[in-house]
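Weekly puzzle thread! Below is a chain. First person to post its structure in token form gets bragging rights.
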Amino acid sequence: MKKLLSIFLLFVLIKPSFAQEGEDVGWVARFGLAGGFNPSFVFPNLDPINVEVRKMGLSELSSSGMFLWGGGGYAYIMLIDNLRLGGIGIGGSTNSKGVVNGYNREVDYNFGLGGVTIEYTLPFIKYVAVSVGAIVGAGSQSIEIFQNKNDYTWGSIWGKVTNPGTTMHDDINYKISNTFFTVVPTLNLDVPINRFVALRLGGGYIFNFNDSWKVNNDRNISGVFSELTSNNFFIQTGIYFGFFAF
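Winning reply:
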């Protein structure tokens, strides 16, 4: 009887120890996978564009940031605790247009970003996921400039090339673009609503590693202001669906 009692007491003492170890492992090693939507805001410096937009008689493009749509996802790779890999793609545009002196004038600014995400979730924070990492990928931005008066016909479009001396020269259509490699350091907070839905709030800083621009059919253009290729901050939000073990 004493032997059985000794075994029972030993089991009672050891069991909480194993349970505590299980809890620690569960909190430290995160796992799961998810995907969803990433409404975001980016804050490019559009001052050089707005100087020219004002000369065209149009309202300025917003200087308080622009809205981007997109999506992304990730999965914990399990080979390295708390490390997750994924991807993201976001893009959007803002414009100004109007009729000035009988001409339809419009300026569009477009911005997009996409790449692979690498994130490490801090293991000592419980109940939510706070992750530091980076987006490694590419981005693009473009400025489109339009001026015209009337609708077109098939013949009038081709006529501007085949009979340039007999067509209007006030019909303008230019696209100036910059494509760049980028590394974006990020900090994200994921808050689970339940095991299958989580909300995201985060941010990052976009580094642009290419200051060259092209116009129309990939022709070089000089004199573009450096502010247009400056690095800029962005804010990321999101709703993710999947399985979460935070």
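Puzzle host: Confirmed. Bonus trivia for everyone else. The two ends are 45 Å apart (CA to CA).
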